[in-house]
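To: structure desk
From: M.T.
Subject: fold request, one chain
Message: Could you run this one when you get a chance? Sequence is below, nothing fancy, just the single chain.
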Amino acid sequence: MKIFQNITYLSTIAVCCLLFSTSCDYLNKKPDNLLTSEMLWDTRANAESYLYQIYGYVQTPADDYTVLGASDETSCSVQDVNVRKMISGNWNPQSGYWQEYWNGSYAAIRQSFVFEENIVKMPDDIISQELKDQYVAEVRFLRGWFYWKLLRQYGPFVKLTGTLSLNDDYNNYPRTPFDECVAYINELMDQAAAVLPPIWNSSANYGRPTRGACYAVKSQVMLLAASPLWNGNPAFANFKNHDGTALAPLQYNSNKWRDAADAAKAVIDLPGTNYKLFTNLDEGDATFDPYLSVRNVFLTNWNNEIIFSTNMAGTWQWGLEKRAAPGPGGFNMQNATQNVVDAYYTRDGKDIDDDPTYTEIGFAGTDDPEEYGKSRDGVNRGYITGNSNMYVNREPRFYAHIQYNGKPVLPAPTSDDRNLFSSAGNQDGRGRAEFYYSGKSGVGVNNNGDITGYCVLKNVSPASNIYFDDVPYRPYIHIRLAEIYLNYAEALNEADPGNPDILKYINLVRQRAGIPDLEDVYPAVVGNQDEMRKWIIRERQVELAFEGDRYFTLIRRLMMGNPDVQTIYRMNTIEDDGGQGFAFTNFNKRILLQNRFWHDKMYLFPIYQDDLDKNTALVPNPGW
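Reply: Done. Structure tokens follow.
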């Protein structure tokens, strides 16, 4: 059951409330409770509609800056989109890029207070006390969720603890210091966790937060608080409210790493849950298959790796696959970079520069007879004859996540459908993607010189028929267990570098991906904090690729200014095949795509100038 579908039975009053709540700035507006009436709280159906309206503000960022080109893992081929302006430095407090995250979060926070104030007044014969307690816990989780999203993007937020009246002076609401913001989010999550169950026993409740989701948000918040951006960052020395109140902690506190490790371990050890890393064995297969395991974790509804998801039937699935799919069925606009392609390991779990078997010379002469090259149900799971050796003997996540030149397309179920993606000379029923100049996904066909030679394949379903816009439903995963394992390993490496749990949880992720344990490949990591940190960040880059994590990892780790992060490479997509099909060497050469702009003020988003003008207590972020 898709519990958060578009709800058509909202009362007129509730609809008006929604319209008003999204039309103004975050403070200077009539409070939502003045737009309600007794009618809204007369029935359980109307009250629940209001709750689901708050859930509707939870973003499914399948197309925002974090996955569409703000970090080194992707580039957007459409030149006028906001993320392209962002990475060129063409933005300021009046640009309003992604301002809906600020306004939408505060609209949801206001409505959460309205709901909480009114649901408790409803008679027990209309809605039971037990259900009222549950719903209050849900809106407290949601309130904490929206504050968490504000904190991660903008830094210290304006903390509201109730609805505002028309007589409130909005200029009396300054920003709250960072550590107090962290404590408030954790308090809300603890309050919600005390009521919510470890798991939901009915699919009708999937998509609602659980106790585990509350703890998982705390893990994310505490990891941010421990990281260099907010743990004694001298760049924030003058980041203060008008009264001199410091908004950022200026002293490094090593205990924050221990707190972050404990927060992640609390999720892992939470009693009553059934969390586990998903594998294809969970779907009834007799033999473990790392390719299917890392691919289908995003395609199998409500699997046990999911900690929090949005179960909304909407356009995100269609939009994601259309953006990510190669032409002519897809838009060919969510392009993986050569940077992230190079980050994926070889099948032996090594960096490509460390594996003597890796070569970029020549092309595969025969289909790989081993497991990664086999086809199953018409879907090729690895490299094939004629693929560049650059794509040979890579790890399973590479084949599950990256659409490269000559790789058979995934979202086309039949041979005839796949042939639609290939030129006449290449039509063999496999639909091999053509990213070279005159290919069906090429620069010459798309009239765009910024295609990298790759598309993002992660989260794309083989059951789709993207050419005919047929995309199956699945939930959008906000938090999954693999992230928590990596949160724990990262924090523990900073707090207790020799702890054996670091390798234990990194290796659980690697084992599911079908590659050797880290210490078997790189023995020097054992007890070496700096080396371990490097490989933990790499593991995040690969395992959590295209999920939004890479951008925020680089932000909180103060790594965005590194030249290798801002120097973006692609394949030589302006090269044509010369009638050779895919086997021409000039395509498979790294060329510079972009030298992206970076200024350290961009570690935090600018607050919209209109909001700064309307609330004089609101100080701008440093540098903006």
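Reply (cont.): The two ends are 45 Å apart (CA to CA). Let me know if you need anything else for the meeting.
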